[in-house]
Each structure stands twice: as structure tokens, then as C-alpha cells.
């Protein structure tokens, strides 16, 4: 059965206006066409819907029931059109975002909070991955946007600047190096080191730096997150290296943060997409937001590590 929304709308107009002539003027359609549509609607439904008299038109019992149902259907159809327009303008939708641990712990909480306050009907799915896996996933269209630490890769993606971060040294306040303002990586290697696990960009940086100086990089312990790294350093398992902005996320009383005096301690975080011009409206809104908004301030690199209440 094919029920035409236009016929339902004309049916409602006739009942609201009281005459076919008035409804035809309201809907900008000939009165004969309105009358024909009503007859076809009655024939389709197999019920008399209207009582015609010299006083106008009134609904039958079946017509009254149809009036309420038709209004609901037309409202639903209008809602569909309105919601689809929201998708086309980016007011509603979903975005899949991949990010490495450095972007997540330093920048994304504040950025995503402000984005979702502006766009409450856009759902963002965030997943943590390693930098190389992020570029591959975006290239294969398994995600819309990726945030990663800039490094050589072979993925076919567009690269855009995101933020910069700085690696620092975390150690206990009574460590032999604790009275220093800065240390070089070669000095760090004289002590036990707690590192992110192999495969992460930070582990790769430290391994490469050790090889270039003719040293062996053999961490005492490898962990999968910065919170685990901080906990291990706090218990005396060794020295840790992590981004400066990440240190403010953890409570670390009686810990010291030193500057890492190495060129590779200054890092570039980048954003990748397959093609900016082909992003969905919702993904484009997030892309623009991530580029436009400024990151939260990070604590200075001196003195005792920040503690959280």
C-alpha cells in the first residue's frame, strides 16, 4: 500500500480550513486536484473519511482517527528531514579519532570537552594507538582523524601540524641527579630506566639516541602507559622520560622533573587525515577545532613535580 504524504497533508489542511477551496488556496493547488486526492485516499483506505455538506467538511470517526495518525506521521517525516539536514551541516554525526598516549594525556581532554560542548549531538569515539598504527589506520579509512608524534612513515595521508611537546626526566627527589636542572640522555643511561614498551615512538627515540652515542639501551622495566611509568619511578624502579605536559596528570609527591638536554626532546605532534576536503561535515568540524583551539597550559619544568588534589 502506497500512502502519499502529500495526500495526508491535503487531508489535514481540508479539516483545518473547513473547505476544499480554502485548503487549495493554503496549499497552492487546484481545488479539483485536492478533491481528487481525497477521493483516492478514501478509496485506498477503504473508508469514508469526510462528510461533505453545505456547512463545509467534517471528519467521520475514521477520518478523526486518521487525522491524529496523519499528524504524527507528517511530524515524523519532518523530523527525519530536519535531522538529516543536521548531519549534512555537521550538527549531528560521529567521528572516529585515533591518538597516541602523548596527545591523549596532554591535549585531548580539554580539546574534546570544549568541542562537545559546542556540538553536543556529535559523538566522538577515541582510541589510543601507536603512531605508526595511527597513520596506517587513517590511510585505510578505519578512522577519520589521527594524532601522532611526527616520524617517518609510508602511509598515504595528509599531515597537518597539531602541537609540540617536550620530553622531561622524572626521578625521585633523593636521586643522585635530583639536584640538577637538566641532564643529557647519556647521563640517564648510567642509571636504571623505566620506559614505555618497544613499538612506541618514545622507546624508538631513546633506542636510537643510545645507538648514536655507542651505548646500549636496556630499560629495567617496560610499561604500557605514563601512569604506570610514574608509579614505577615513584617506587624507585628507575628514571623515567615522558612529555612535560603528561606529568601534570599524575599525583607525584616528592618527585623531581628535570629538563632533558637533547635536541630530540622537542617533538612535533601532527594530525593526519586521508583528505581534508572529503571529511564528513562532523569530522571537518572536529578537524578545524583541533587546529584552532589552543592547548592547555603545562607546568614549568623545574622544582618538585606537580601534585594533584
Automatic annotation (TrEMBL):
A molecular function GO annotation: DNA binding
Gene Ontology CC annotations of this record: cytosol
Key words of the record: DNA-binding, Transcription, Transcription regulation
Top-level taxon of origin: Bacteria
Residue ranges annotated for the HTH lysR-type domain, each copy included: 3-60
Family: Belongs to the LysR transcriptional regulatory family.
Protein name: HTH-type transcriptional regulator GltC
Organism of derivation: Ralstonia pickettii (Burkholderia pickettii)
Species lineage: Bacteria, Pseudomonadati, Pseudomonadota, Betaproteobacteria, Burkholderiales
Gene: gltC_3
Amino acid at each position: 500500500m502506497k500512502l502519499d504524504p502529500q495526500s495526508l497533508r491535503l487531508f489535514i489542511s481540508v479539516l483545518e480550513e473547513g473547505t476544499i477551496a480554502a485548503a487549495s488556496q493554503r496549499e497552492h493547488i487546484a481545488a479539483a486536484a485536492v478533491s481528487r486526492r481525497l477521493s483516492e485516499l478514501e478509496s485506498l483506505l477503504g473508508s469514508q473519511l469526510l462528510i461533505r455538506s453545505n456547512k463545509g467538511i467534517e471528519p467521520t470517526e475514521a477520518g478523526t482517527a486518521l487525522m491524529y495518525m496523519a499528524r504524527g506521521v507528517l511530524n515524523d517525516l519532518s523530523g527525519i528531514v530536519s535531522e538529516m539536514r543536521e548531519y549534512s551541516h555537521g550538527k549531528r554525526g560521529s567521528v572516529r579519532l585515533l591518538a597516541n598516549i602523548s596527545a591523549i594525556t596532554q591535549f585531548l581532554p580539554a580539546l574534546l570537552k570544549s568541542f562537545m560542548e559546542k556540538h553536543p549531538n556529535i559523538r566522538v569515539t577515541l582510541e589510543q594507538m601507536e603512531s605508526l598504527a595511527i597513520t596506517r589506520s587513517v590511510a585505510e579509512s578505519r578512522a577519520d582523524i589521527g594524532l601522532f608524534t611526527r616520524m617517518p612513515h609510508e602511509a598515504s595521508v595528509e599531515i597537518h601540524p597539531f602541537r609540540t611537546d617536550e620530553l622531561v626526566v622524572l626521578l625521585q627527589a633523593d636521586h643522585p641527579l635530583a639536584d640538577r636542572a637538566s641532564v643529557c640522555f647519556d647521563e640517564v643511561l648510567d642509571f636504571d630506566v623505566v620506559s614505555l614498551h618497544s613499538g612506541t615512538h618514545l622507546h624508538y627515540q631513546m633506542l636510537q639516541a643510545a645507538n648514536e652515542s655507542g651505548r646500549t639501551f636496556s630499560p629495567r622495566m617496560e610499561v604500557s602507559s605514563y601512569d604506570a611509568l610514574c608509579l614505577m619511578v615513584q617506587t624507585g624502579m628507575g628514571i623515567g622520560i615522558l612529555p612535560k605536559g603528561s606529568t601534570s596528570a599524575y599525583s607525584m609527591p616528592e618527585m623531581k622533573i628535570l629538563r632533558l638536554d637533547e635536541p630530540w626532546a622537542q617533538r612535533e605532534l601532527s594530525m593526519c587525515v586521508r583528505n581534508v576536503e572529503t571529511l564528513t561535515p562532523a569530522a571537518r568540524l572536529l578537524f578545524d577545532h583541533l587546529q584552532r583551539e589552543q592547548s592547555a597550559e603545562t607546568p614549568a619544568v623545574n622544582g618538585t613535580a606537580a601534585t594533584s588534589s
